[in-house]
Each structure stands twice: as C-alpha cells, then as structure tokens.
Amino acid sequence: MSDETKSNAPGAEPKPEAGGPESSQDAARLAAEVDTLQGQIADLTDRLLRAHAEMDNIRKRAEREREETAKYAISKFARDVVTVADNFERAIQAVPAGAAEADNALKSLVDGVSMTEREFLNVLERNGVRRVNPKGEAFNPHLHQAMMEMQNSEVAPGTILEVFQPGYVIEDRVLRPAMVIVAKGGPKAPKAAPSDATDGGQDTTPPPGNDNSV
User: Fold this and answer.
1) β-pairing verdict for 144-151 and 178-184
2) How far apart are alpha carbons 185 and 159 in whole angstroms?
3) DSSP string, 48-82
4) Whole-number Å distance between alpha carbons of 18 and 132
5) By the 8 A CB rule, do 131 and 166 touch?
6) Quick one: pLDDT band at residue 103, thresholds 50, 70, 90?
C-alpha cells in the first residue's frame, strides 16, 4: 500500500503540515523556556559573583582586624607602663645642675637611671611604642595637647616652646598626647606637610576631654 493510500485510510491521523500552527506554537514555547532559563542562569551567576565578593570582603576585613589586633593589643598595657618612663625622667631632672659632677656617687646613680631609661624606651620602641618630645616643632592637635599659650615674637605662631609631659604613639595611633606650651605672635608659620604619624588612615579626632585648641 502506498504512503498516500495509508494516509487516506480510514482512522489514520493526519500528519501536521510543516510550518503549521502547532509547529509555530512549539517554537514559541521553546523560545520562552530558553529565555526563562537564560534569565535564571544570569540571576544565579549574579548571586554567585556577589557571594564571592562578600566572602572576599569578609576575608580582607578579618585579615585587617587580625593585623590591628596584633599591632595594638598592648595599647592598654603600654598606656600604663609609659608612666614608668615619666618617673625616670623626673628622677633625672630632680638632680640640681652640677650636683652630679660634684658627687661621684650621685653621678653614678644619675648615669644608672639614665641608662635604665634609655633601655626602657628601646624596649618600648621594639614593641611599636615611641616617645613624642616635640619641643621646637609645630603644634599638631592630633599629637599634642596645648596647656597654655606664651607670647614669643622670635618663633612662628604655633611653635612648641616647652613640653610639660612627653607624649607616646603606638604604631600610627596616639597613645598619649604630649602636654605643651605653644607660642603666639612672631612671623607667619610656613605650611607644614601632613605627618604620617598623626592618623595612619585611622580616626584622628583628639582624645575626648583634651582641650587642644590654641
């Protein structure tokens, strides 16, 4: 029996014509499914990239916090022990000028205290703690605390004339501001370049309770 005869036989289902309505509907349905899948792939890809970026940010933040913890872990301890260095300096300054040269025992004592002070400061520096003794430097409100102003026409305004108490920094943070006397009057001060030791990218707001205005 020929194909034409079979197709015309009773009960035989007619074949859909190529390019007919059903073929167009199938193509449209498949195109819609492809668009849906592509949209889902784009959405999942975007979520994956966001998740990777978030994980990278978390890793970097954890590394930064670990580094800061290692650098500043001794801050509270250092803030307490720097007063020992203050006592060494007070002991040396308490000896009247010329008294040590007139008394060998006193001179040996002063030399011993001076050596101990130097070694103590060296130990602090090896652990990231550095003394700030800014006499003759320009006043920096992030490093210094102005106790008073003094008229002095021989230096630029804002020059530190005396240091009541040295300050200390740990790495790039202020541990304790230096207490100073600042000059007013005199020639105009030259513009100073920003200091790297003032903030190091950290918050440079003066410690609360300190009057740093000059």
Assistant:
1) parallel
2) 10
3) HHHHHHHHHHHHHHHHHHHHHHHHHTTHHHHHHHH
4) 91
5) yes
6) confident
| 184 residue type, one letter | K
Nearest to 126 by CA among 65, 163, 78, 91: 78
Q: Do 177 and 206 form a contact (C-beta atoms < 8 A)?
A: yes
Query: What pTM value is reported for the model?
Result: 0.58
160-165: strand order across its sheet: 144-151, 178-184, 160-165
pLDDT tens digits for range 138-188: 999 999 999 999 888 888 899 999 999 999 999 888 999 999 999 987 666
Q: How many CA atoms lie within 13 A of 184 on its CB side?
A: 7
Which sign does the torsion angle of CA 187, 188, 193, 196 carry? positive
pLDDT tens-place string over residues 22-76: 778 878 888 888 888 888 899 999 999 999 999 999 988 888 888 888 778 888 8
Cα separations (Å) of 21 from 64, 82, 180? 64, 90, 93
Sheet of 173-176: strands edge to edge?
129-132, 167-170, 173-176
Lookup: tokens for 210: 């300190």
pLDDT category at 118 given cuts 50, 70, 90 is very high
